[in-house]
Specification:
The complex is a heterodimer of chains A (97) and B (156).
Chain A: E1 2-4, E2 10-12, H1 21-41, E3 50-54, E4 57-64, E5 70-76, H2 82-96
Antiparallel strand pairs in A: 1-2, 1-5, 3-4, 4-5
Chain B: E1 3-5, H1 11-21, E2 23-29, E3 35-39, H2 44-67, E4 75-79, E5 83-92, E6 95-104, H3 110-127, H4 139-153
Classes of the chains: A alpha+beta (97), B alpha+beta (156).
């Protein structure tokens, strides 16, 4: 899904049944803001890719768009090929930028 | 964050909402501007102004919707450089209510405010008392009731 980073709203989505896109978008953008502040405070610069692994799946996020105004968010199964998803997300982010 | 309520059944849902949505100011009121609860306001004059202005916005947008033969707007958002304002009206057993939310863009977002608003509305609907016989408000009582409400809202 594509999420507006500043307001946490869904720009575009293609989701499996049972996933509440608006909730994922709002919470992912909130997390993005906090992680960004943590990384800047730690002197690490801007974030490029996050991978949150959970019991039953994972959340993968890549900033995209002009001045990273968007987030590309992927919700995956637990056994997904993370490397491949990461590559595709980064490619999509380049296209969006 | 200080949360005060004239009608105590609103207190728990509002406390949860403020904490989860990261809202800076919240005002829960009737469409007529009668305040049921507030969070974050420190001066009575600010509550009176915000409730009057919020009620006026709901009235004017409802009338615009009526002119367009549409149902009333579910929500109204205004985003500035550092703060955002969200206004929404919804029905409960207590009658129609309006919530006015002010949030800082550094601490929250429109998405979070809207997301947790769904839960706030559900919690308020579950907690709201059934509508009784409407009490007749006399002009002589109005100022006393207003002062009583403001005293409750600021813990005096």
């Amino acid at each position: 899904m594509v999420v507006s980073r500043s307001d946490g709203l869904v720009v575009a989505e293609q989701l499996m049944e049972g996933i509440k896109g608006s909730a994922v978008a709002a919470l992912a953008s909130s997390l993005a803001g906090r992680l960004q502040r943590a990384m800047v405070s730690a002197g690490l610069g801007s974030s490029q890719f996050w991978h949150l692994q959970c019991d039953q799946g994972a959340l993968l996020v890549v900033p995209a768009g002009a001045e990273a105004g968007l987030l590309l968010v992927a919700v995956t199964e637990a056994d997904v090929n993370v490397g491949l998803v990461r590559l595709e997300l980064l490619r999509a982010a380049e296209t969006a930028g | 964050m200080t949360i005060r309520a004239v009608e105590t059944w609103t207190l728990e849902p509002l406390t949860t909402y403020v904490s989860e949505a990261g809202a800076r100011l919240v005002l829960l009121m009737t469409p007529a501007g009668q305040v049921l609860a507030q969070s974050g306001f420190s001066r009575a004059v600010d509550v009176m102004a915000a409730s009057a202005l919020g009620a006026a916005i709901v009235a004017s947008t409802s009338e615009l919707a009526r002119l367009m033969s549409q149902p009333p707007f579910a929500g109204l958002s205004h985003q500035g450089q550092r703060n955002g304002i969200f206004l929404s009206a919804f029905a409960t057993d207590r009658g129609p209510l309006v919530v006015l939310v002010v949030y800082e863009l550094d601490a929250s977002s429109l998405g979070l405010v809207q997301l947790f608003l769904e839960q706030l509305v559900a919690d308020l609907r579950a907690a709201s008392p059934k509508t009784g016989v409407p009490k007749q408000v006399l002009a002589a009582d109005f100022e006393r009731e207003l002062n009583d409400s403001l005293n409750s809202l600021f813990g005096r």
